[in-house]
User: Fold this.
Amino acid sequence: MIALFGLILGIVLGIAINVNIPADYSPYFTAILLISLDSVFSSVSLILKNKFNDILSLVLFLGNVFIGIILILLSSRLGIDLQFALYVVLTFRIISSFSQIINLGYTRFLNKISNKRSVKNGKCQ
Assistant:
């Protein structure tokens, strides 16, 4: 319930407050946004696998943010375009985690249906 309230509050504040991000900071903001989405989808996937650990997820998120910002900072200093590679890798991870979520959710749904049918037919597992 608290998470839903926080989500709604965040959406309302995001729409109500006009935040302008300077062009110099846009690569960092984009990386942090993609890393955040990656962490959320990875955490949901771990929750569905019953392997979620909140402290570990927080440490991994902060570590990923640190590494992503360092990579973008180094790429801008060295003149190498690592930003695009970072975006591709994070997008791939997000899509992979999302497909795992769909697969695990579908499997759980099928298991619930089969359990209901077996109980309905008088078979207990």
Notes: The longest helix spans residues 83-120. The chain has one domain: 23-119. Residues 23-119 form one domain.
